[in-house]
Specification:
Structural class: mainly beta
Shape: globular
Largest sheet: 15 strands, antiparallel
Distance between the termini: 24 Å
Number of strands: 15
Strand order of the largest sheet: 1-2-3-4-5-6-7-8-9-10-11-12-13-14-15
Radius of gyration: 20 Å
Length: 287
């Protein structure tokens, strides 16, 4: 149900949510699936402050993607979760975002907290972004409760024909892996998240991850060729250093019909030089 009073909107019930720390599956990202995550939530959004969107909410139930459970089956989301989100674009060419999420676990000693900041600055045709995410997961051993990650990203035209570029870097600094939040869509929050395998690799503790891609538009087909590497400081990590690369091609026949193909190759240090290849094909028709 939706209610709107002046500049305030109240949305209650089953819904998709798209914020950095609470997110359903996102089209064009690793989390993309036929069935998206859904939440039973109560959100209040206010826009009284100029150029600012403020959202506060409570989540009590969650429906995972189809492969995790029955379609349409909503389960209790732990013992409930609270979030507050703000987005501001009052400064020319600059967008700021901030969010806090608290998940109350069924066992109070296993509560989770997340805080997120992001800044996006546009200079001409180029966009430069920075992000910070910190998390505490009390279900882990004490020295691995806290996770922390920084990120930088740049994108824009290369100045050669119609080619574009994207470069992203994340560095985690604490002893624990970073908790990305609630919902499958949060696997795409980190800048260096891969189109197929998402952000699990850069969210590891003490890891530096760099990803770069070239964007190639030809007629109605846009292709992206990308490569990345994640270096892990601690040898006991299950994956060790990870190298990945892939190609994504998107074709739009018209506004209603589109085709997307992604192939991604990943090589992990542990188990010894293990290779994984994944291909995904998406055909979308809107009517």
């Amino acid at each position: 149900m939706d209610y709107k009073i002046s500049n305030t909107t109240i949305k209650a019930g089953r819904q998709f949510i798209y914020t950095p720390l609470v997110s359903s599956a996102i089209d064009g990202k690793a989390s993309e699936r036929l069935i998206k995550d859904s939440f039973q939530a109560y959100l209040i959004t206010n826009e009284d402050v100029p150029d600012t969107v403020l959202t506060a909410g409570y989540i009590d139930k969650y429906q995972a993607q189809a492969y995790d459970g029955d379609i349409g089956s909503f389960e209790d989301f732990e013992d409930g979760a609270y979030t507050i989100y703000a987005k501001n674009n009052s400064i020319e060419n600059l967008i700021l975002q901030a969010q806090y999420l608290k998940v109350n676990a069924n066992d109070n000693s296993n509560d989770r907290d997340n805080i997120y900041f992001q800044a996006d600055y546009t200079m001409g045709a180029h966009t430069f972004s920075a992000q910070y995410l910190a998390s505490t997961d009390k279900s882990r051993i004490s020295k691995e409760e806290d996770g922390e990650v920084y990120g930088l990203k740049a994108s824009g035209p290369l100045g050669i024909w119609k080619l574009g570029y994207i470069v992203a870097f994340n560095s985690s600094t604490e002893d624990g892996d970073v908790d990305l939040g609630a919902g499958t869509g949060t696997t795409d929050t980190l800048f260096s998240a891969m189109p197929v395998n998402g952000g699990g690799v850069p969210a590891r503790a003490d890891a530096d991850t760099l990803v770069g891609g070239i964007i190639i538009p030809i007629e109605q087909i846009t292709s992206v060729i990308y490569i990345g590497e994640s270096r892990k400081d601690k040898d006991e990590d299950l994956l060790g250093d990870v190298k990945a690369g892939g190609i994504m091609a998107m074709y739009s026949y018209n506004k209603n019909l589109s085709l997307k193909v992604i192939h991604e190759h990943v090589k992990t240090e542990h188990p010894l030089d293990e290779d994984t290849d994944v291909t995904r094909v998406y055909l979308s028709f809107k009517f």
